[in-house]
């Protein structure tokens, strides 16, 4: 037992020892990594997971989850879900169109490489800078608005919607569309030109091809990508926080608010409960996504 | 008749090209105008003429300079800790603990499914404890950032290690009398240098863009300071944002050049690269 | 789906250009009802272009396509009623075998029950009734191509078009499926165009073989004729192996190394020329240890090819390939001195300048 417990002893004396102790020595190599992720990944996860069931006095309670029925949390849940769903679907549709425009060109063409590289950058382009970019362009002092206003189109006549949910949706599209291009392009690349020619030789036209062949083949990938986009928007925080500082319409902002409330009381247990709600929804979507992946992998 | 047929296929081709270029043009407008607008905004004087005043006065805001320095330091520390932690572990797992490889992969990809804001909730008490027992320096943020960059760096390094035969190489080196340290430093690292550079650039880009964790753990890094300053002086703030964007863009261009060597693109790789990044930064 | 009499297919003076490259340069070809014509040639010779023009997948820059007496030049593929089998990967991946086969019937608005019945019949025809519920990725390459054939036939097309359907398969499967395709084609009696770059395949399967080069048909004829009486040096060299032997044309025959051989082109002008002689027309007469002469040489190598063997003989100034039954070849190990005999089959003449004909 002492030898197993003290690897240094095992090294010096343990060369002829059998597998059991050598294995314990090998495990040592993974200890720093495991300790690190234990402290900064698994421990925080556990704190969220368990902490949600305890109140400030460390007694077990379901009260934190009860608070999820507060009207502003319910509202944030609905709003976040709606914005995520709308930007996921719109982003998926527009991104798929862009991806299709790419694959119908030359596979090694400059245009394709350009769009793919740009998508890689833009899909990661979120947060504060993105919010600034939209404020500087279509915001009330942005040149697009000033130009439109000077030409009789005052698109803020009924309120500055850029700083509301609809504006947030538009801004989200900025990273949702490129993400869709990246995720969907491999699926489009898998479409063989022979399928179209076979369809035509069997008597089908363009509509038949999309309705019966390309559509069904691409649909699971499309839906899977849309789910990924949903989870992406659902988890987003920085963009919303940088763009909207009136109220906290997104669930992620509600978490932040409960964590370090500037006005009301700090409610760490409540923050954890919202976090769990968020995780549950994202996990649900992820499970759906992997189910779809499995369905596609049956034939691809 | 041949002419008639030609025209139907020609029509189809023309229609496709029209669709393609309209799509590209619309995408170009949607994606380029906001970026161009930032440049325009940060060089606009009150009377409508061009000025570099905002860019010049960046240096008049010591908090902003401090935040920039802090973010650069965070990027450096995060990259080093990440490499020291990840590279030996991944090599060791490949050599000695293949049974552990799936667990390590799962752990490394776990931050993809945990939104950054959720991670913050769990890190909050950890940082309170660290702050009162060790240090409350902003540089401690890098400890959390290592977790944040874990998935991307894991994927990059995994691709690099997958391209070489780690086991045979290290067995050959060991048979020639190399120590494990020599195997790592003289054999493995030179062979995955591209992957290491890849992982480093990714983590630098991620750390420079990070807002969620810093803001909620109440540290003023670059992005947090941008928001603060943005309320006082939007022009300067946007100028800094443009500068940091250009910097990140240069990093990603370098990355694209490194990643240009032929390899099969796995869909889940693209997914992982894009999805989690957005999740952590947005 | 038996007892269907084929229709006549005519390609008339088809021209197809890609930019400055002329892929088809006035191709004319008539396929008789129920006939299988194989177009054979190196890649880029225009054979696939010809098939795609016939299918309507590409448009001609000139000429006509006539199927069963009807000009279909302007019709899209979907209205030409042709069945196509592609090189590979043409099965729809999200449909099982029978659904693939039924797809063309669905396009023709055949009812669901009838559709499935006819799809299963077609699969039975190609011997694949038992894999009707498999996806393409659950089948071997050979099975996939059979399903593709069933799919093409299920719509009861007037013409069957096969675009290198065997080239992605391994050798053994290829030979078996080739015979199978021929059996089914004869059984159905459908007019068929088969495109391939594999001469053995073309010769084995076709009623007539068309050898193409640079967008033009070099020769069209029954396999035996194409092989034994190649019309042009290109055909002789592309179809089978040939020896190129220097000789002299004189008086309607060519003299090669002291042997007079009849000519394929009888009215050729006198003068020096290269005669193209098949390895099977060369035999090893005897051991000739002491002899000397233009046809005496030493065996260089013996290549065992199964039932036949190919012997390379060094004649000093050139080497000659001879093909014979392995039992015969085994008498002449490498190094043996032998005398060659040339069978007096008509041979083809090649000259540096275009073959001039005597008036």
Compact description:
The complex is a heterotrimer of chains A (300), B (282) and C (359). With 300 residues, chain A is mainly alpha-helical.
The residue ranges of chain A in which pLDDT falls below 50 over 5 or more consecutive positions are 1-21
The major sheet of chain C is characterized as: 6 strands, mixed
SSE order of chain A in H/E notation? HHHHHHHHHHHHHHH
Helix vs. strand class of chain A: mainly alpha
The multimeric state of the shown protein is heterotrimer
Task: Give the strand content of chain C.
Answer: 25-35%
CATH class of chain A: Mainly Alpha
| Strand order across the largest sheet of chain C | 6-7-8-3-9-10
Low-confidence stretches of chain C: 354-359
Main sheet summary of chain A: none
User: CATH superfamily name of chain A?
Assistant: MetI-like
CA-based shape of chain A: globular
User: Most extensive chain contact?
Assistant: A-B, 88 and 82 residues
Shape of chain C: elongated
Tell me what you see in this structure.
The complex is a heterotrimer of chains A (300), B (282) and C (359). Chain A has 300 residues and is mainly α. Chain A has a single domain, classed as MetI-like (MetI-like fold, Orthogonal Bundle), CATH 1.10.3720.10. Chain A has helices at 2-5, 7-13, 19-27, 31-51, 63-66, 71-103, 110-122, 128-138, 143-150, 165-189, 193-201, 206-235, 238-243, 251-259, 268-297. The longest helix of chain A is centred in the first third of the chain and has 33 residues, at 71-103. Chain A is globular and about 75 Å long. Chain A starts with a helix and ends with a helix. Mean pLDDT of chain A is 84; it is low at 1-21. By secondary structure, chain B is mainly alpha-helical. The relative contact order of chain B is 0.13. Helix content of chain B is 80%, strand content 0%. Chain C has 359 residues and is of the alpha+beta class. Chain C contains nine helices and 20 strands. Chain C has helices spanning 47-55, 97-107, 112-125, 141-154, 171-188, 199-205, 223-228, 233-238, 326-329, and strands at 9-18, 21-31, 36-40, 62-67, 70-71, 82-85, 159-163, 191-196, 208-213, 216-221, 243-250, 253-256, 259-262, 271-277, 282-287, 296-304, 308-314, 319-325, 337-342, 348-350. In chain C, helix 2 crosses helix 3, helix 2 packs parallel to helix 4 and helix 3 (112-125) crosses helix 4. Chain C is elongated. The termini of chain C are far apart. Chains in contact: A-B, A-C, B-C. At the A-B interface, helix 4, helix 6, helix 7, helix 8 and helix 10 of A face helix 1, helix 3, helix 4, helix 5 and helix 6 of B.
């Amino acid at each position: 037992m002492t030898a197993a417990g003290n690897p240094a002893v095992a090294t010096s004396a343990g060369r002829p020892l059998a597998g059991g102790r050598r294995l314990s020595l090998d495990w040592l190599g993974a200890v720093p990594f495991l300790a690190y992720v234990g402290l900064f990944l698994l421990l925080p996860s556990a704190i969220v997971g368990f902490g949600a069931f305890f109140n400030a006095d460390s007694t077990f309670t379901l009260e934190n989850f009860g608070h999820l029925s507060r009207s502003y949390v319910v509202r944030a849940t609905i709003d976040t879900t709606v914005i995520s769903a709308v930007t996921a679907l719109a982003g998926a549709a527009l991104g798929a169109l862009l991806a299709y425009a790419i694959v119908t060109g030359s596979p090694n063409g400059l245009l394709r490489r350009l769009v793919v590289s740009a998508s890689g950058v833009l899909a990661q382009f979120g947060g504060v800078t993105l919010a600034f970019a939209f404020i500087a362009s279509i915001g009330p002092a942005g040149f697009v608005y000033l130009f439109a206003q000077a030409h009789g189109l005052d698109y803020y006549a009924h309120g500055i919607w850029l700083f509301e949910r609809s504006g947030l949706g538009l801004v989200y599209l900025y990273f949702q569309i490129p993400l869709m291009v990246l995720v969907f392009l491999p699926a489009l690349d898998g479409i063989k030109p022979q399928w179209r020619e076979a369809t035509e030789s069997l008597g089908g036209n363009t509509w038949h091809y999309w309705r019966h062949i390309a559509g069904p083949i691409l649909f699971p990938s499309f839906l899977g990508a849309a789910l990924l986009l949903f989870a992406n928007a659902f988890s987003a925080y920085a963009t919303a926080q940088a763009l909207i500082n009136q109220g906290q319409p997104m669930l992620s902002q509600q978490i932040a608010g409960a964590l370090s409330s500037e006005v009301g009381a700090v409610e760490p247990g409540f923050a954890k409960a919202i976090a769990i709600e968020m995780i549950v929804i994202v996990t649900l979507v992820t499970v759906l996504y992997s189910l779809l992946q499995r369905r596609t992998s049956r034939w691809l | 008749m041949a002419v008639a047929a030609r025209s139907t296929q020609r029509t189809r081709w023309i229609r496709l090209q029209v669709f393609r270029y309209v799509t590209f043009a619309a995408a170009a407008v949607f994606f380029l105008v906001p970026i161009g607008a930032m440049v325009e905004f940060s060089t606009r004087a009150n009377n409508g003429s061009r000025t570099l005043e905002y860019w010049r006065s960046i240096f008049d805001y010591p908090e902003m300079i401090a935040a920039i320095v802090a973010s650069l330091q965070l990027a450096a520390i995060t990259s080093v800790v990440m490499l020291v932690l990840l590279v030996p572990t991944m090599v060791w797992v490949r050599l000695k603990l293949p049974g552990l490889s799936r667990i390590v992969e799962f752990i490394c990809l776990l931050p993809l499914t945990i939104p950054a804001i959720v991670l913050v909730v769990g890190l909050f008490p950890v940082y309170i404890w660290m702050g009162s027992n060790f240090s409350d320096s902003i540089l401690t943020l890098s400890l959390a950032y290592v977790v944040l960059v874990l998935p991307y760096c894991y994927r990059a390094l995994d691709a690099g290690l997958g391209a070489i035969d780690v086991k045979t190489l290290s067995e050959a080196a060991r048979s020639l009398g190399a120590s494990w340290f020599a195997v790592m430093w003289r054999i493995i690292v030179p062979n995955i240098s591209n992957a290491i550079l890849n992982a480093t650039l990714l983590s630098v880009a991620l750390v420079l863009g990070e807002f969620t964790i810093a803001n909620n753990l109440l540290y003023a890094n670059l992005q947090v300071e941008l928001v603060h300053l943005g309320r006082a002086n939007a022009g300067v703030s946007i100028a800094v944002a443009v500068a940091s964007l250009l910097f990140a863009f240069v990093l990603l261009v370098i990355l694209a050049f490194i990643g240009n060597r032929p390899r099969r693109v796995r869909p889940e790789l693209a997914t992982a690269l894009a999805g989690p990044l957005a999740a952590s930064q947005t | 789906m038996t007892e269907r009499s084929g229709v006549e297919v005519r390609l008339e003076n088809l021209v197809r250009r890609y930019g400055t490259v002329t892929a088809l340069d006035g191709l004319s070809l008539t396929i008789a009802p129920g006939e299988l014509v194989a177009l054979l040639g190196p890649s880029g010779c225009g054979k696939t272009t010809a098939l795609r023009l016939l299918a309507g997948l590409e448009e001609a820059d000139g000429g006509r396509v006539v199927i069963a007496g009807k000009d279909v030049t302007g019709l899209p593929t979907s209205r030409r009623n042709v069945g196509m089998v592609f090189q590979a990967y043409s099965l729809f991946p999200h449909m099982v075998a029978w659904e693939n086969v039924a797809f063309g019937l669905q396009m023709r608005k055949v009812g669901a029950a009838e559709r499935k019945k006819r799809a299963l019949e077609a699969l039975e025809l190609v011997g694949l009734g038992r894999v009707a519920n498999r996806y393409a990725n659950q089948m071997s390459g050979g099975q996939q191509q059979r399903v593709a054939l069933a799919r093409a036939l299920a719509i009861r097309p007037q013409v069957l078009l096969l675009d290198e359907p065997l080239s992605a398969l391994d050798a053994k499967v290829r030979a078996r499926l080739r015979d199978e395709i021929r059996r089914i084609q004869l059984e159905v009696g459908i007019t068929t165009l088969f495109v391939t770059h594999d001469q053995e395949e073309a010769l084995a399967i076709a009623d007539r073989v068309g050898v193409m080069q640079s967008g033009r048909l070099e020769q069209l004829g029954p396999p035996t004729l194409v092989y034994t009486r190649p019309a042009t040096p290109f055909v002789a060299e592309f179809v089978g192996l040939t020896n190129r032997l220097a000789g002299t044309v004189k008086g309607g025959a060519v003299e090669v190394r002291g042997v007079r051989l009849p000519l394929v082109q009888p009215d050729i002008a006198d003068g020096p020329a290269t005669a193209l002689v098949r390895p099977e027309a060369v035999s090893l007469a005897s051991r000739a240890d002491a002899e000397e002469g233009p046809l005496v040489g030493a065996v260089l190598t013996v290549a065992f090819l199964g039932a036949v063997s190919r012997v390379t003989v060094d004649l000093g100034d050139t080497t000659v390939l001879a093909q014979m039954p392995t039992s015969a070849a085994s008498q002449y190990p490498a190094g043996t001195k032998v005398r060659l005999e040339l069978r007096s089959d008509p041979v083809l003449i090649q000259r540096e300048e275009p073959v001039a004909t005597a008036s």
